[in-house]
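Subject: design request, 555 residues
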């Protein structure tokens, strides 16, 4: 279940949602030309009604066409339903956003706390709880169905032993664990299972008869077979304990019904709860990513047009659901293939033509090399404080596994250069004079992220402490600094506080730890100012995700 917090390229024009023929052309290209899908279905809803465009097949070699009733796994788009349950229960007076999650769990479960603060329901819905993406005791017996054997008892055990590494509410960190825990807590409060609660409160009242976790025989006949990036059929995922994070299956027609209620085309008792979900609760603080988050929904403005959205991915599927609340237009894109490109760019492009479709991936060709070389690369490489890439050898294959992700094979295109087939990503190993890897560079989403080999325990991220400096110094830092052609960091002063705002992102305060060094609290990132003899900043360096990005003053 993935959340792609990637930036979207921009073009100079904008338009309404394209006609069906143009949408079909996009799907044909993605499936037949780029080979990044087996089947896709797009749904559009707006003032003129609904329309559905489908292309591809239920399975390779299966001639039955896809349509608006074809069922897909929607992965992390489930989290929107979980947060709607929360919003609805708040409207009913059953819970409060500020309620500690521990209030709804067994008394013997010790939920981690920090600084005298408890994790609340709103912290879980906004991914600011301080909990990691996944629990460390999720050790799947079958990597093809990684959540199937994880139990609620194991979840409780993890919570009772985990120590938070940052303050609650201090930073956005996308967490499947948090989404799943929210589902568990709400189901316990309602006195029924998660699936029953979703049906009782959401899908039943809205008439979404093709949305659920357990499929009837008739629904199974409409289920598209999932495929990996190599277009090979893969098993469906089962997510029993963390169901609120990504267990739902649905169809485009059902998801359009869901959007119709969110956009006010269908009157529903859920209306007030849906409206409350759009209130911005926290910034995400991720440059190039979603700017803000409400309850469950991500909110971004790639070109100034507000888009409310969420996506999802399981082993064989990708999903996107989003809408423009001002234009009252919504889009759903469901695919029965898990690829790195996913379908987010298609959904965003249909809602806002400023967002360009992703270019086709560069073709990488596997070459034969001596598998004995793989032994030199085996080890752990730290990309970020809480993100490790573990490289292992299995016979004549080299495998890699990122923190909280399934293990995947990487393929050589030279002795030190490898590529992934499940996503558009590549790895270059950096070696010493003996050929042993001392580090690697991950090439993905246009970024080159270095990672050093680590031995022993992973060091905790550096703690940043605010110090007092003369606020008059801030005047020398105020200005605009260009990180990339279309990505500018604007520094402003408001009284005794200094703020930074990246293109398309919310403003966030930065705090001094020295006269020239500042840090964010909403994200693990820091800024170093470089000044001239007068104290005026001529440039800055943004330190984030292991990268040091220089930016010259442009204003």
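Subject: RE: design request

Done. Sequence follows.
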């Amino acid at each position: 279940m993935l959340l792609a917090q990637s930036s979207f390229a921009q073009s100079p024009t904008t338009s309404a949602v394209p006609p069906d023929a143009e949408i079909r052309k996009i799907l044909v290209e993605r499936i037949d030309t780029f080979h990044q899908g087996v089947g896709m279905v797009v749904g559009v809803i707006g003032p003129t009604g609904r329309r559905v465009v489908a292309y591809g097949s239920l399975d390779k070699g299966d001639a039955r066409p896809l349509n608006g009733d074809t069922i897909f796994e929607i992965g992390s788009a489930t989290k929107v339903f979980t947060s709607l349950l929360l919003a609805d229960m708040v409207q009913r007076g059953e819970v409060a956003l500020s309620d500690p999650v521990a209030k709804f769990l067994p008394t013997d479960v010790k939920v981690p706390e920090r600084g005298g603060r408890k994790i609340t329901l709103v912290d879980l819905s906004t991914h600011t709880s301080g909990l990691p993406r996944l629990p460390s005791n999720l050790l799947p017996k079958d990597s093809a169905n990684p959540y199937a054997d994880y139990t609620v008892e194991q979840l409780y055990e993890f919570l009772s032993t985990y120590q938070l590494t940052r303050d609650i509410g201090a930073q956005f960190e996308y967490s499947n664990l948090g989404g799943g825990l929210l589902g568990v807590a709400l189901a316990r409060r309602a006195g029924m299972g998660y699936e029953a609660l979703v049906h009782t409160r959401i899908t039943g009242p809205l008439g979404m008869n093709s949305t659920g976790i357990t499929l009837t025989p008739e629904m199974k006949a409409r289920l598209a077979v999932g495929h990996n990036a190599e277009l090979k059929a893969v098993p469906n995922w089962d997510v029993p304990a963390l169901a609120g994070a990504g267990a739902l299956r649905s169809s485009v027609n059902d998801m359009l019904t869901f959007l119709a209620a969110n956009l006010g085309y269908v009157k529903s008792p859920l209306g007030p709860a849906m409206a409350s979900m759009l209130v911005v609760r926290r910034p995400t603080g991720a440059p190039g990513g979603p700017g803000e988050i409400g309850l469950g929904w991500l909110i971004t403005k790639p070109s100034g047009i507000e888009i409310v959205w969420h996506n999802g991915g399981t082993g064989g599927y990708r999903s996107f659901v989003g809408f423009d609340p001002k234009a009252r237009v919504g889009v759903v894109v469901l695919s029965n293939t898990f690829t790195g490109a996913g379908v987010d760019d298609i959904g965003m492009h249909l809602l806002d033509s400023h967002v360009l479709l992703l270019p086709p991936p560069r073709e990488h060709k596997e070459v034969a090399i001596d598998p004995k070389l793989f032994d030199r690369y085996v080890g752990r490489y730290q990309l970020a404080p809480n993100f490790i890439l573990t490289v292992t050898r299995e016979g004549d294959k080299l495998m890699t596994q990122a923190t909280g992700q399934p293990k995947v094979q990487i393929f050589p295109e030279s002795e030190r250069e490898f590529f992934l087939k499940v996503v558009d990503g590549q790895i270059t190993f950096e070696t010493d004079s003996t050929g042993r890897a001392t580090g690697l560079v991950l090439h993905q989403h246009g970024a080159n992220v270095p990672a050093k080999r680590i031995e022993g325990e992973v060091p905790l991220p550096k703690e940043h402490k605010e110090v007092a400096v003369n606020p008059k110094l801030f005047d020398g830092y105020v200005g605009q600094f260009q990180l990339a052609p279309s990505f500018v960091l604007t520094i402003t002063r408001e009284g005794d506080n200094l703020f930074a705002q990246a293109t398309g992102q919310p403003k966030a305060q930065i705090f001094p730890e020295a006269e020239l060094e500042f840090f964010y609290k909403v994200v693990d990132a820091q800024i170093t100012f470089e000044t001239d003899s007068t104290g005026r900043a001529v440039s800055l360096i943004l330190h984030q995700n292991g990268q040091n990005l220089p930016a010259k003053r442009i204003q």
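The chain has three domains: 20-56+68-333+341-351, 371-454, 471-553.
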